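Researcher: For the record, we're logging two predictions in this thread. I'll number them. Prediction 1 follows.
Model: Prediction 1, sequence and structure:
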Amino acid sequence: MGRVAGAHNALGAKLAVQAGLDAIWSSGFEISSAHGVPDASILTMTEYLAAAESIAQGVAPVPVIADCDTGYGNSNNVMRMVRLFEAAGVAAVCIEDKCFPKTNSFIDGKQELASVAEFVGKILAAKNAQRTREFAVIARTEALIAGWGVDEALRRADAYVRAGADALLIHDKSRTAEGIREFMQRWTPSVPVIVVPTTYPTLGVAEADALGIKMVIYANQGIRAAARAVSDTWRTIMRDGNSLAVEGEIAPLSVLFDLQGMPAHRAAEQAFDRSGAVPTRAILLHAGDHRDDPTLASLTGSVPLAALDVNGQSLVHRQVEVLRQCGIADITVVAGYRHDAVPASGARLCVSTSWPAGGEVGSLLAAPATPDAADARTLVWYGDVLVERPLIERLLATADPCTVVVDRSDRPVTPGHTTRDFVHVDDEGTASKRFLSPSAPRRVLAIGSGVDAQTANGEFAGLVLVSSSQWPVLRDQAEGMGAAAVPDLLQRALAGGLDITALEVTSGWLELRSFADYELACRLVSS
């Protein structure tokens, strides 16, 4: 039985999580109340989205469900809403079958419901717009609120599930919850059912569980409690002329500092705040022809992968732009196949004359041996990998001699992956495929084609950051390798005593090894 707390900001959400609630409901009523306006479609989607995103960031990885009223318009509005809320880190959205503009369900008077056909269209639009399997669309029926009875609630619920809703929220404002009980007795379970016992608080989690209800949302108790407590506090201060009487009843500043994350902020400040940023140069490996996959051959027959248009900009331009946004100005693009067509604007272009036979290591050696700044680190980035800026920023925040980005998502590492990308990370103490990163980075035990598929527990994501002191050592080892992949060079350095650590990720990157990958990149990357 999931218990969910309503909240209108990250502070209230954190307090609920501390108390042990399982998830957060980004409450439209609470957000409207916090703005001092009626819960009647007065605020815009932008204002609700900003609140939900702040809550999601504040309590991650605890899931956040966004109360999205009627979807802020028609099906087109619903599709945009889903994409924005999903991108903001929200786990699920809930839309209700009222007409826009809506009125809060607990206000007396007539409640206008949308037709079943119209709302089914919204659900179909929402499911079509979502980009990840984990995201959920919750359909909320207001049939009981509108006084249309259990029969209508059942009819609508069945239609919404058939349209693809991942869960149902059955809303009611009776004092007895008899409508909820009858609905659950007559409903054939197919998706989880959610209730909001605002007006029927006697329906506890034990009875809800027995009825087959999977989630209870306490949608507004938090802001109601805060309104009374804050009001009482100010009245006492105004009565006494000082705050002495309330100081023992209100939270000390230390509690707020903890909720703000101040201890972690100070720790990060001590670990990373320096008088000047550590200089870094980047090498983008773009020499290969990428025609080994038949689905890509038609695209790269006359132009290199670097020049492929990814939603309005070339692949290499997007990579260079991310590096510059991260403060890296010393950028080298190593080209080979059709190097004359590589649009390396804003970067130094080097040509690997031996690219067909020299492999990745040969391309690496074609870049300048030393960076422009003597104390700069070197970031090596595969040309066929797109990376989001936050991942690069996380990598640049590390300070180890050599750090590789390793995908630790829970999909199994199978022989279907290119063997050069296998990584074996020391994950002692990890109980399952889900894990928490330790305070100290995990060590890489083995990397490259020599790693057995059975022991591999990660995939090299095409990014490695090497300190200024270790780069000359790594480059010297590359000189005598001949044609080899970068992971095999790293394995050689590892065997020679170099400590390599893993920056563990589960998202934030995409490799372009096939036409399907390219098509996905064009869909996911904004212009």
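Researcher: Logged. Prediction 2.
Model: Prediction 2, sequence and structure:
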Amino acid sequence: MGLSRNLLTAGAVALAASLPLSTPALAQSEVTIMRAIDTDRYDPHTSTARSTAEIMFMVGDTLVSLDTDMKTVKPLLAKSWTVSEDGKLYTFNLRDDVTFCSGKKFTAADVKATIDRWLGLDKGVVKNRAGDVKEVRAVDDHTLEYELVQPYSELLYQMTQHFHTIINIDQVNELGEDFGVKGFDGTGPYCFESWEPRNELVMTKHEAYTWGPDFYDNTGPAKVDKVVWKIIPEDNNRVAGIQTGQGDVTQYLPYWSIDQLEANPEISVTSPPFYFWTYYMGFKITRDVVDDIAVRKAINLAVDQTALAEGPFFGKAEPATAYIHPGTLDYAAADIDESLFGYDPEAANAILEEAGWTLGDDGFRYKDGKKLELVAYSFTNLWRQITEAIQGDLRKIGVDLNVEIFDATVIWGKLATQDFDMYTMSYPYVSAGDALNLYFPSDNRPTPNRMNWANDQTDAWLFEGRGAATDEGRAAAYGKIQKQVHDAVVWVPLVHEPMLVAAGPRMKPVAAHGLYGAGLYKGLSLELK
């Protein structure tokens, strides 16, 4: 399916109204990146949004980076590190040649101030990603001790994420509530210049930057002088922008456009070697009806993941038969019974019949006079197509799924309630432990543990995995949890989403990265032809 000539023309006209045409002078040094949505502020400690991460990775740095295999931790602001035998003390040897965009010299005191500020914020998010911190100490300007109360086996992997971006605490104190709104002083390859919410964010090249991750061909400075991130909400306009050259790069592409863009010799479409972002539908297992594992098993077997990958995702996604991608660190292939998932409507019907749910004259199932009718909360846009397909699949086995669609301003509050039976979600992760520690701790109810999964054994295994002294011990603990929660069929895994980054006629192909769904990562592969 492609754009008609009229639709493409209309999209180009609409885009022209929102994107200024580049002058020949600007065309030599300025790149426009198009994306769909903005965030509320650019503060790594108060936002989990991908739109925040996209900017943080480019205007800031973390102590360590994650290679494109999504498994190998590499140096960044830290040149090297050691870990004590008990796993509680990390000692980082920091670079001595790093400066913030303001010119301030980067030292261990900045790392200490960053972590102290994050953990001290009432509105700080996902503090568990910092580990159970006892104290962070600046031993000298270039030596940092990061001491934990208990071991955290995935600390280094979590330190690659945007939450660990090192900040300039002097600027934080100066700007107060305007930090991340009127400015952000980082050590990244680009410098935060200005932001007009819901319109554009401008960043400029950090001339002094030479310390980028070694998996980039270019470790700095950046090869473009200026990057403008434009909010272009309409899919058609982003597609038209790439085709006409009015926008240079985007990863926010409708799936129907990919074949068309790949066929255009002036456009490159690239993907990272590994990328983990999974779509699923979860059950609130404490609710009547879906508290029955037979119902959950039947619904899982009624959903056609291959059809979803081929339909709403136009063949670009991978059908999912587990909660996390098989390429993920600590994925427990031997422990997951994939026969619980996938499309088998005959088996689904048999399970419901055996459980006492019989078909009525209206085509829906009943038990003890109660209709098999469920309420699901979901998002707008692509999710509408996905849930419509799932509704159709479930009707074939006599399940009446009523989907309530909410936009982004409302749905997060709705998902924190106990008023639904099922819900839809997609999420990024870097490892099995990353996913499990987010969704399955009892203390994370009612959000993000929207299933209300509460299990002492799970909590014990999570503790064991987080504190494991070896990679093997961590994998073993997380493998037990994967078997447990898959056997309980608390989710319907749907698809593993692809990442596709398109670069327009002026650009060389972009080396995409899979971390947190921020495909440009440091932005060091952005280069004009």
